[in-house]
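Tokens for chain A. Residues wanted.
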């Protein structure tokens, strides 16, 4: 079964990637000290490449995340084959470092293993396609932490079965810090606060809402500070002139969204099911305990409480009786349905008039379960067409789009 995690590749580019000369290349994954994040490069694939696709095997592929260095990027998972495919495409040549195509950063769960040979495809500006079959997969890891380095098959973080819960504490107040037995730490500022400093074993590290790859012997201390009134949160990937810039400032200032990192918001990153329910959970101001209803949602996951809250209150359901698919991408009609359920629970939904959908050329493509919710979202001014009077109900919602819709939802009269 294949599953998309992030998407931003044009149909033209993906089509060209599907069908040319078979050459040789090497896929390089350079993991950090914790073995959970790797810089992904494609060696010997030439320069002036405008799109690239690489595929390799990965144990436990369900947990992957990919932050590309191209204008558009995506990752798909084939759980049956145990493979991951990364995509990157730009209107200008892809980034080249020391002659290698620099595709981005792959994040995996502790204990995941990469190995075997892979395949790769690149396109030049004219969409000429070059295929690299049986590409060697070389894996290295920063040895300064674990003393390990390898090529080919490697463990990216050791056994995931051991309890690696680090010690955590807050210096003062202003937020919460939660540690999990997989060596991860989730940091959540209270409304009106932000993360000022994070110390790991007495050493300051980059500010982030999530740390991974820690050990049971590690000690994490977090200090929060109050945000100044009217203070803007600057993200390097949010241009002040973009249509979503004000909405990004709005949702971050209200502590509904957090950046993908201390400096990046990820406006074009596809919104996942876990992200959406977490935002609504924060917006509700309620609390819940994580439950074990879904096999793919563990008690220590950063979204576990939000998923439990959303399920208990009828806001979301699992994709099956036992799975939630937290990393699954959210479509526009799914987003409208989930937000409508949230509004119904808050008692703020007026009677929806689904006839408003008739003004859109693709109204018939709205799924039957979502017709009423989509009508409500259009009627309330939360959703509008994406061009040529189309709703694109099956299109994936990005973080920027959801930020704009939530601002409209909260500011409506």
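Reply:
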């Amino acid at each position: 079964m294949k599953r998309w995690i992030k998407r931003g590749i044009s149909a033209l580019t993906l089509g060209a990637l599907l069908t040319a000369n078979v050459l040789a290349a090497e896929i390089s994954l350079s993991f950090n000290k914790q073995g959970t994040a790797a810089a992904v490069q494609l060696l010997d694939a030439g320069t002036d490449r405008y799109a690239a696709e690489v595929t390799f095997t990965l144990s436990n592929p369900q947990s992957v995340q990919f932050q590309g260095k191209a204008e558009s990027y995506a990752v798909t998972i084939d759980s049956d084959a145990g493979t991951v495919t990364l995509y990157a495409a730009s209107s200008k040549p892809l980034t080249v470092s020391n002659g290698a195509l620099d595709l981005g950063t792959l994040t995996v769960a502790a204990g995941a293993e990469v190995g075997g040979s892979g395949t790769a495809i690149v396109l030049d500006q004219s969409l000429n396609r070059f295929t690299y079959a049986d590409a060697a997969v070389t894996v290295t890891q920063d040895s300064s932490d674990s003393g390990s380095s390898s090529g080919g098959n490697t463990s990216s973080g050791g056994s995931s079965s051991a309890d690696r819960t680090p010690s955590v504490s807050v210096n003062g107040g202003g937020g919460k810090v939660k540690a999990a037995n997989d060596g991860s730490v989730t940091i959540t500022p209270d409304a009106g606060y932000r993360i000022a400093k994070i110390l790991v074993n007495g050493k300051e590290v980059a500010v982030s809402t999530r740390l991974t790859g820690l050990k049971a012997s590690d000690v994490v201390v977090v200090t929060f500070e109050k945000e100044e009134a009217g203070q803007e949160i600057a993200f390097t990937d949010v241009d002040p002139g973009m249509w979503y810039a004000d909405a990004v400032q709005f949702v971050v200032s209200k502590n509904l969204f957090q950046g993908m990192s201390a400096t990046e918001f990820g406006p074009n990153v596809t919104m996942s099911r876990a992200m959406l329910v977490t935002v609504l959970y924060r917006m509700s101001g309620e609390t819940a305990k994580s439950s074990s209803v879904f096999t793919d949602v563990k008690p220590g996951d950063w979204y576990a409480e939000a998923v439990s809250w959303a399920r208990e209150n009828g806001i979301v359901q699992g994709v099956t009786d036992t799975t939630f698919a937290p990393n699954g991408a959210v479509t526009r009609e799914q987003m409208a349905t989930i937000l409508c359920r949230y509004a119904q629970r808050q008692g703020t939904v007026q009677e929806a008039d689904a006839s408003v959908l008739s003004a859109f050329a693709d109204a018939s493509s709205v799924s039957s379960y979502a017709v009423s919710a989509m009508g409500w979202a259009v009627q309330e001014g939360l959703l509008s067409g994406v061009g040529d009077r189309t709703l694109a109900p099956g299109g994936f919602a990005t973080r920027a789009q959801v930020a704009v819709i939530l601002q409209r939802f909260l500011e409506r009269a």
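The chain has a mean pLDDT of 80. Residues 63 and 109 are 6 Å apart (CA to CA).
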